[in-house]
Write the structure tokens for this entry.
Amino acid sequence: MPSWVKISAASALVLAALFVGLASWDNLTATAPAPDPVRRHDVRIVRDTWGVPHIYGKTDADVGYGIALAHAQDDFRNLEETLAAVRGRAGALLGEEGARIDFAGALLDARAVADRRYTTLSMPTRRLVEAYAQGLNDYAASHPGEVRLRGLFPVTGHDVVAGFAMRSPFFFGLDRPLGALIEGKLPPRDAGPADERGSNAFAVSARRSDDGTTRLIVNSHQPWEGPVTWWELVVHSDEGWDFAGALFPGAPFPLLGHNRNLGWANTVNRPDLIDTYKLVMDDSGTKYRFDGKWLPLQSQRIWLRVKVGPLVLPVPRTVYRSAHGPVIVNDQGAFAIRYAGIGDVRQVEQYYRLNKAQDFGQWRAAMAMQAIPGTNFVYADAKGHIGMFYNALFPARATGFDWKGVLPGDTSKTLWTRYLPWGADPMVVDPASGWVANSNNHPFVATAPADNLKRADFAPELGIETFETNRMHRFAALFAGINGPISRDALLRIKFDKGYERTGTAKAWLDKVLAVDTRKTQGMAAAQRLIRAWDWTLDGDGPADSLVVALFGTVGRQSYRGEPLPPAEPKLREVTDLLMNNFGRLDVPLGDFQRLRRGTIDLPVIGGPDALRAVYGDIAADGRRVGNNGDGFVMLVEWPAVGSVRSETIHQFGAATTRTGSPHYADQSPLFVSQRFKAVDFDFGLSQAVPKP
């Protein structure tokens, strides 16, 4: 266990003796906050053939209550863990890794910020999050055998809001500088998340399609299991909330998808929205210098609750804060972190308004709130409007400083307090090309070359990424190859494409692999021969596909972080040995090597790292690569020239996220691996007389 949470053996024995026969320190000391007012909610939950819930309420708050009930029916485990993290009790469930989450939450002061800023939210938003919390409480009360933490329930609307405030900065990479500083290192200079949080999004306008239909593809890549995996739903209320899409545990509304008139997809972007400051401390270590004055470094003693065997034990830590934000003290000094959206809790407000927007103007007005500090939005609507919005809450930074490095913390010149307006963000709206796309790349390739933005038009202080993906190069080439109208089939061929462009990291990595001297290693020489003959497509037909997938998979994280590629010779040896030891051959069919596994289901899945048909995975005990990230929830939305919106979706597993005994635990997996959709009956259940749950 790392030193930051280490418990001495003697202390552990003493504590264990104290708690023999008792539940744990966590259960003994846990207390829940005062509950929200309990209200009656008029809601119906109807599940379609695939178990996807369609939730109907008289009010939006009724729907929020129903969302909580339905999601808990499918995935109470992840909901409970999400709420435990908000309450600083993830360590009580998950041990050391959970304690890291708790420390981060305490450092960001997310719950206190939510408490202070809660009344800045509109009354409809507060009613919604409180109804959602009540739904979780009612489910927990009626299913006590599923509750693992005593005193966690009842939860409140404040907890829901705090969850958004806590998780938001980690989507644009707060974990990287924070983790480095905790380990006693300097933060990396490049921005962005630590792992392969990829996504694709595409929109084609009615005037560019072959049938007058505007189309949107939602294709956000997330882990296939855990607290940020997608859960599908459709909602309707008599207050005009109609939406089909998906959400993460802890969200009281869909985070992407469509209503009758418009919709959007999201992809993670990587703007530099985080700054690190080196503080000048006095000899006592309790004050820091700022504009010539010595200011007190705020400190707070916290107790991490860490599961150790059958017990949950207290581990003391101290968190610090300065005028800049949270502070980490390590052997190299005291470092403060400031990030976009610090102190803001309006993320729930903005997402709710986006759900309720009925036209492009209302949607853009909601975006101008700037409460969602980072993530790309690809938009489309029934009027034929499309757009790619590089949404980022850019700090108003002064010129003359190295904003990617560690900044001087003793001057207000580096301490930004304002943001640029949303209109300053890079955005491509209704381009002449008739299409927009994003695959976690910089915003200067978003459509056809003639309509793209120019990097020179944006100040370097914004910190806009330079990152390019194979998926970006691929969609640009594929769209460029369509000279006339873009049909539905052509758009889907782009989305499910498994090819690689002979440029960027893919080419650089294979060039390194092919440069390895293999004259004395017969197996590796044979591997190189297969790679040289590879057709640059992971379609499952080529003899080199499994070998290439394995090679790309070994460098995915470095590539995503923009780190130097590792030495090629040991990686080539590693994957050669992997295939030979487990299959006795190098030309293993990709479907035999790469699998989707869920319960008793074990299916071939085709695609690969950083392909538009993205599949990431880990090597299992039997030597096969088992998918765990990438393409998951995929939605195709269409607004035809005549008629109502229609959509189709697919999920890598099914609606019953953690319910192994449910028929919907993995019923969509056969469709998923064959790249087929199921229809969304947007108005399913409207006329059905279904008892309230």
Remarks:
- The longest strand covers residues 298-308.
- The CA atoms of residues 176 and 194 lie 6 Å apart.
- The chain has a mean pLDDT of 92.
